[in-house]
Write a structure and sequence with these properties.
Elements (H helix, E strand, L loop, with lengths): L1 E6 L2 E8 L2 E7 L5 E8 L5 E8 L4 E7 L5 E6 L6 E2 L5 E8 L4 E8 L6 E7 L4 E8 L5 E8 L2 E8 L6 E2 L7 E6 L5 E6 L6 E6 L4 E3 L7 E6 L5 E6 L6 E6 L6 E2 L6 E7 L5 E8 L2 E8 L6 E2 L7 E6 L5 E5 L6 E5 L7 E2 L6 E5 L6 E6 L10 E6 L7 E2 L7 E6 L5 E8 L3 E8 L6 E2 L7 E6 L5 E6 L6 E6 L2
């Protein structure tokens, strides 16, 4: 253990061997203020942060046992937190001239310093209680927002910021669960400080809870129900439930896998994809399960149906050799090819003024051509790329007001989180931060919630998150 003791008006740092309480190392006294002590993961070093003669904080390393301090770096104004692999550490630097607090990351020898966030005093960023996720990819930390401490999560390079708590309470000292899916923290929301556990995404509700895989959520136009696909009956079929998970109804029951449900704009029918005859086709069915009808008959694979405001259905097909967007009438007639640039996953904006889809970037980003989000006018003109990311992007979803698009960003197949971006490609916002695969975002019609599928509990379930 390590602690500061005051002797003769000065602080001493005392390190005690807990297996032999008589074995202690006292760091020589100085005119100092100790800010914190952090043990290395293997326990052979301690990292000491202290202020000397009212100067900036200085980080030292002490090998155990011993009393020789090795200075690592200056400008460290908080205890450090070590990354899980022990190769980097995070800390806060306070610039008294500008009253700015900066969250920094450095390699363990004090080099390769990087600023990953800064705030003025009035909106202070604090590392006291910050924590690295178990995989080292994210950092949870506390920021004062309008007088209350709130918990945020971001990537370890400072990108992809997400606010996890958003209430009139102080929420502090976050710590990650071993699987990286939850945060435990202290909060005074009940009048005194208590311990709380929350999904890393914040106010998250698990809509379904079944050993089967529940996927592909889509909101009804009035926002009262969610359609999704589940294999709880042995094969993937289409189900409809109230937004609180009640009144679950299975509406397809063929000896085939049914996925990707999509509500018509009048809320009366659902289009979906069925795997049949060795490929996939587009079907429609009434919401009560009646009048099921097959719309496409082609050797190619038809996927991702989405209704236009005027009752047509856009879909993806490789019937002409590569995946492109097609459009047909609501009864399957008048099939027309819409794009010629290798496009998938078409989604109409709610006002019918634009269509979003994904397509490979025309330019190489990083080392390949990732899938990016594009917009196109209803007549097929004015195609423009919205995003520009080195990771491929999937399943775009329009916000309720039509001013932004949510999407899932894949990280080499190991994890996926959901983000939101303006139509200009700016103001990127992180919506989920879980450690597994979050995908298939779908906004509620009033814009207050988002449904998505995630395997964070071992299999795919439907979740609903409140949006602030």
């Amino acid at each position: 253990m390590a602690h500061a003791e005051e002797q003769n008006g000065k602080q001493h740092l005392v390190v005690t061997n807990i297996t032999n309480s008589s074995s202690t190392v006292a760091i020589p006294p100085a005119d100092v203020q100790y800010l914190g002590v952090t043990f290395s993961h293997e326990g052979s070093f301690i990292y000491i942060t202290r202020k000397e003669n009212n100067g900036p904080g200085i980080l030292y390393r002490l090998a155990l046992p011993g009393n020789d301090l090795v200075q690592i770096k200056s400008g460290v104004d908080s205890p450090i937190t070590l990354s899980p692999n022990g190769e980097r550490f995070a800390f806060v630097r306070h610039n008294e001239d500008t009253t700015e607090y900066s969250l920094m990351v450095s390699t363990i020898d004090g080099s390769n310093e990087q600023t990953i966030g800064s705030r003025k005093d009035g909106d202070m960023l604090s590392l006291y209680g910050a924590a690295w996720s178990p995989d080292g990819n994210n950092i949870a930390f506390v920021r004062n927002v309008q007088g209350k401490n709130q918990i945020f999560v971001m990537n370890n390079d400072g990108s992809r910021l997400k606010q996890v708590t958003n209430n009139s309470s102080n929420n502090e000292r976050p710590a990650w669960s071993p699987d990286g899916s939850k945060l435990v923290f202290q909060t005074d929301r009940d009048g005194n400080f208590e311990i709380a556990v929350m999904s890393v995404d914040g106010e998250l509700v698990q809509l379904t809870d079944d050993p089967a895989d529940d996927i592909d959520p889509d909101w009804s136009p009035d926002g009262s129900k969610i359609a999704f696909s589940s294999n709880r009956a042995g094969m993937q079929h289409i189900y409809v439930a109230n937004v609180d998970g009640t009144s679950l109804t299975q509406i397809t029951n063929a000896n085939a896998a049914d996925t990707e449900p999509a509500w018509s704009r009048d809320g009366r029918r659902i289009a979906f994809v069925r795997a049949i005859d060795g490929n996939t086709e587009i079907y429609v069915v009434n919401v009560d399960g009646s009048k099921e009808a097959r719309l496409t008959f082609d050797p190619g694979n038809e996927l991702s149906p989405n209704w236009s405001p005027d009752g047509r259905i856009f879909f993806t097909s490789n019937r002409d050799g590569k995946r492109e967007l097609y459009v047909m009438n609501g009864d399957g007639g008048a099939v027309t090819r819409f794009t010629t640039t290798a496009a998938i996953a078409p989604v109409w904006s709610r006002d019918g003024s634009r269509i979003a889809f994904t397509s490979p970037s025309a330019e190489m980003i990083s080392t390949y051509h990732p899938l990016e989000i594009f917009l196109v006018d209803p007549d097929g003109g004015n195609v423009r790329m919205v995003t520009k990311h080195p990771s491929s992007i999937f399943v775009p979803s329009w916000s309720a007001d039509g001013n932004s698009i949510a999407f899932a960003e894949d990280r080499m197949g190991a994890a996926s989180n959901i983000f939101q971006v303006d139509l200009t490609g700016s103001n990127l916002k992180r919506l989920t931060a879980g450690p597994k695969i979050d995908t298939q975002p779908a906004f509620s019609p009033d814009g207050s919630k988002m449904a998505f599928q995630s395997n964070r509990d071992g299999n795919y379930e439907i979740y609903v998150i409140n949006l602030h």
